[in-house]
Design brief:
Length: 392
């Protein structure tokens, strides 16, 4: 699923290059070249069972998404190849996962064959032209609107989830996390000496990221899976850790005692938790009508971020900080006046519960309790979490 890891040393062309080429052909709609690239990749991967199995899976999925039944059948054969390797390597969960896809794909092929056969029989008896009757078919006799093969990204996500006993989907890596939530989660798990496999979602295709979120029914990263089931994100892990119940909960989820080792610290990076608003100040400021947006500036964004961190208890201290930031003299009177002017715009955006680019709104933000902006807007963040009802 992550072609960046499928490299072969020694040659000028790597397996990664071939798979990226296959993906590029598919995106451009040249499916024949995509299939050919996958076949080249399979030949290239021979001798490395793990890579060979992954290429079998990729080629199998590509063929299942082709309209012709004969190609779908060929796709099933490649999935059987992947299952055979999983069986040989003793990867029971992976084998069960692939077998499930094979069963669904086989049922789909059978349905398409029955539909195609029935359509041909009706045409033979009545002498009618299917295309004129409004039931448009392609050259294979399969409805163009027929069911598509198993979703590749969803299946890939499921395969990743069960690939390792303990799987952490995170932003970045344990040594270089890319968000405060991933950093804190890794630090907690490392303090327990927990043996887990990290997967950097920042390098995954957006559709794969979405599939992982959809399967776990949780819209944020990090996500910790144990034995193929979502254990929780940072909030759950941190809460259990604070109550000294995390180890027991992880054991109940299926992690044996030997799954915990000596504490370790792989990351010394200090990522400050500025609150969601720090990354979305301009989005918040852009909530008003177009005419108001012209009145807003980058300095307004910096003021908003500072208030989200410090509140408005000490205007002189805020003015001093912004003076250094703007390289000019800023007075407390100036920023108090400006805050009164932009506050209604911010309040409108927050209370609309609009979704930010990060995938959540202010009331679902994991750092909402650390953000002081809500106190300054004169409402309780928990009240915002209550769904609004529409009058009948």
């Amino acid at each position: 699923c992550d072609v960046r890891k499928m490299e072969s040393g020694g040659g000028s062309i790597t397996l990664k290059d071939i798979l990226l080429s296959a993906d590029d052909h598919w995106r451009k709609g040249d499916k024949d070249k995509c299939i050919k690239a996958y076949e080249d990749a399979l030949e290239f991967a021979k001798g490395d069972e793990e890579k060979e199995a992954m290429v079998h899976m990729g080629l199998g999925f590509a063929l299942l998404r082709m309209p012709e039944v004969r190609l779908k059948k060929k796709g099933i054969l490649h999935l059987l190849g992947a299952k055979s390797i999983a069986d040989k390597r003793g990867e029971e969960a992976q084998a069960v996962f692939v077998q499930d896809i094979i069963a669904k794909a086989s049922a789909q092929v059978k349905t398409l064959e029955l539909k195609s056969g029935g359509a041909k029989e009706m045409q033979r008896v009545s002498g009618s032209d299917e295309r004129k009757s409004g039931n448009e078919t392609n050259e294979t006799g399969i409805d163009k609107g027929g069911a598509e093969g198993p979703d590749a990204y969803s299946s890939c996500a499921k395969g990743l989830i069960i690939k390792y006993k303990v799987m952490l989907f995170m932003k970045g890596t344990p040594t270089q996390p890319e968000c405060i939530h991933s950093l804190k989660t890794v630090k907690i798990l490392d303090a327990l000496g927990l043996d887990f496999y990290p997967y950097n979602v920042m390098k995954a295709h957006p559709k794969l990221q979405a599939a992982i979120k959809q399967i776990g029914k949780w819209p944020f990263f990090p996500q910790l899976y144990v034995n193929g089931k979502l254990f929780g994100g940072r909030d759950v892990i941190e809460g259990l850790n604070d109550d000294e119940e995390l180890v027991e909960a992880l054991k109940k989820a299926g992690i044996p005692s030997e799954g915990f080792g000596d504490p370790r610290e792989r990351c010394t990076t200090d990522i400050t938790a500025p609150g969601c608003v720090s990354g979305h100040a301009k989005e918040l400021l852009g909530a008003a009508a177009a005419g108001d947006q012209a009145l807003l500036s980058d300095e307004d964004s910096d003021l908003l971020v500072l208030i989200s961190k410090e509140g408005t208890g000490d205007w002189k201290a805020l003015a001093k900080t912004l003076s250094k930031k703007f390289s000019r003299k800023v007075t407390s009177k100036e920023i108090r006046k400006r805050w009164r002017e932009i506050k209604p715009i911010i309040k409108q955006k927050v209370e609309s519960k609009a979704e930010m680019k990060c995938g959540h709104s202010c009331f679902t933000c994991p750092t909402r309790h650390e953000c002081k902006l809500h106190d300054e807007l004169d409402h309780d963040i928990e009240d915002l979490a209550v769904p609004t009802t529409t009058p009948k």
